[in-house]
Design goal:
The protein is built from 5 helices and 18 strands. The chain is mainly beta and 357 residues long. The protein has a 5-stranded antiparallel sheet with strand order 1-2-3-6-5, with no helix packed on it.
């Protein structure tokens, strides 16, 4: 079981005499031959008492021990140094029962989006060899939720014949994630069986975990003052927030009743069901949806949001989410690569170029 370095390392009274000597020797070696380390400034060290040396050594080991898992680098197609270390957090919370062990290893996030790295080990002898898995029961709660959406993505498996898989929980929130408590309940692992055109359960059981989101948000908030007319409806872009993982737009809409779709825009197909006060369900076509719904769909349409880099590359928008209330929308666009504001040449939204300064 991985050790929780945030809670266990600063307990010198639990160390053996041999361990004290080992840490002391490592620390004195660092004092004699200092070397630069990411996140830890170089210092000229003089004379310490044993207790001070011990505390410094253990604190340094705690910082050095945290390193983002390679899963994140693969998920974002990132190289070394591209992902801000402070945007990640060690969790290492684990729960087990007779059906398996679920571990929340690390998280990575910004103000409204978080990626949670999950590790699951099923019963001994079971081969978890499918490409994609899902949970029949998946409940995610935040201590201060104002609308959220989430999904699970299976990660590459180095050994598909064993009982071990890794997944990424991807979550968008309408409120700031900083300091929030996340409660996670997962149950009954399943995969889609194309032969039966249905899901097949492979592991039955339930796992519950809670942990606090305690990472540092790295983002740039850029004010906007842009009006976009959609017929007689007016879309006012208030701000643009760029993090290494997402772009968030804050938008107001007035006179939604006058909405006219842009030329060439293809509305989503299908419809929905309206539930009346007496419980009656009335189906309707998408064309009959309220104007606020149609505008919200357009505002979050991936084809109408484009980032172009200074080298000419046009980024693929991976997905996103949003949160809305009457007349106000918050739209989150996600990318499968790390964003660097200094490398962005332009951001185009609904046919208009946004301000980047």
């Amino acid at each position: 079981m991985p050790k929780d370095f945030n809670t266990n390392l600063l307990e010198p009274q639990g160390l053996s005499r041999e361990e004290e000597q080992r840490i002391l020797q490592q620390t004195l070696s660092r004092v004699q031959q200092p070397a630069p380390r990411r996140g830890i400034p170089r210092r000229r060290m003089l004379v310490f008492g044993l207790a001070a040396v011990m505390l410094l050594a253990m604190s340094s080991l705690a910082v050095a021990e945290f390193a983002l898992k390679q899963d994140f680098f693969g998920f974002f197609n990132a190289g070394a140094g591209q992902i801000p270390q402070q945007s990640g957090q060690e969790v290492n919370k684990q729960v087990s029962n007779e059906a398996g062990t679920l571990t929340v290893e690390q998280v990575l996030g910004d103000s409204k989006t978080v990626y949670v790295l999950l590790d699951f080990v099923g019963p001994e002898g079971l081969a978890l060899d499918q490409d994609m898995y899902q949970w029949d029961k998946a409940e995610v709660w935040l201590s201060k939720a104002n609308g959220l959406g989430y999904s699970f993505e299976s990660l590459p498996d180095d050994n598909p014949t064993d009982n071990h898989i890794r997944m990424m929980l991807c979550l968008n929130s309408g409120t700031s994630l900083q300091g929030q408590q996340m409660d996670l309940t997962l149950g009954d692992l399943k995969f889609y069986n194309p032969d039966d055109l249905d899901y097949t359960q492979v592991v039955g059981g339930e796992w519950k975990l809670s942990f606090k989101l305690d990472y540092t948000v790295s983002s740039s908030l850029i004010k906007q003052d842009l009006d976009i007319m959609l017929g007689e409806a007016k879309v006012h872009v208030n701000s643009l927030e760029v993090s290494p993982f997402t772009v968030i737009l804050d938008v107001d809409v007035s006179n939604a009743e006058g909405y006219v779709a842009p030329e060439g825009y293809v509305e989503p197909q299908g419809g929905g069901v309206e539930i009346l006060e007496d419980g009656t369900e009335v189906p309707f076509d998408y064309a009959d949806s309220p104007a606020e719904v149609k505008i919200g769909d357009l505002l979050s349409d991936l084809d109408y949001f484009t980032i172009t880099l200074k080298d000419g590359t046009v980024l693929d928008t991976y997905g996103g989410g949003g949160n809305s209330e009457p007349g106000h929308y918050q739209i989150i666009f996600e990318f499968k690569q790390i964003l660097n504001l200094n490398e962005i040449a332009s951001i185009n939204y609904l046919g208009q170029e946004l301000n980047l300064q």
